[in-house]
Design brief:
Layout: H1 13-38, H2 43-52, H3 57-69, H4 75-88, H5 95-104, H6 109-119, H7 122-136, H8 144-153, H9 158-168
Helix pairs in contact: 1-3, 2-3, 4-6, 5-6, 7-9
Length: 169
């Protein structure tokens, strides 16, 4: 069976532009899926990677939005995995440091806080606080309220700080 194309069928400028946009989105999505298959991505980073590979910003944002809607891309999931990897490698000095570092990776504060809360149950956070104190080696002469303020500034929860002071002070 052969298909005859009508030579008189010509795309309008708008149709041609829409077709070109759809084709670019298809190519960008194919690349995005390859990147996601290789490693977890976040929306900011994936958008930047697509733009570096010469996809138009609108194409990159459209593809990222579509992947977010299909749950193939999730900033909270990315942040949780990133936090866990930093904790496992002992490269995270404090919760505040984790939040700032995630912000530098384009993760919004709400997603970062949600991921941090998902990763840190009270016991995990308490152990993290003990490691923080061990690394920073606060002098014994440092007053309790000063240490409490420092721990709060570093992002530890009030409950975990209170537990530390009831256990050790």
């Amino acid at each position: 069976m052969t298909i005859d194309y009508l030579p008189e069928t010509i795309l309008s400028d708008g149709e041609e532009e829409a077709s070109s946009f759809a084709a670019a989105c298809c190519r960008a999505e194919k690349l995005a899926l390859k990147l996601i298959a290789r490693a977890e991505q976040n929306s900011f980073g994936l958008t930047a990677k697509l733009e570096r590979r010469h996809f138009d910003a609108l194409v990159a944002k459209t593809v990222v939005s579509r992947l977010l809607a299909r749950n193939l891309l999730d900033d909270v999931r990315y942040a949780e995995l990133w936090i866990r990897s930093r904790l496992a490698s002992r490269k995270a000095p404090s919760p505040q440091w984790l939040l700032v570092a995630l912000g530098r990776r384009g993760i919004d504060r709400n997603s970062s806080l949600k991921a941090l809360n998902n990763v840190f149950d009270p016991q995990t956070e308490y152990e993290f606080l003990l490691k923080y104190l061990e690394k920073t080696r606060f002098p014994q002469s440092k007053r309790a309220f000063s240490l409490r303020a420092q721990l709060k500034y570093e992002g530890f929860s009030s409950e975990v700080i209170d537990r530390y002071f009831s256990d050790f002070c």
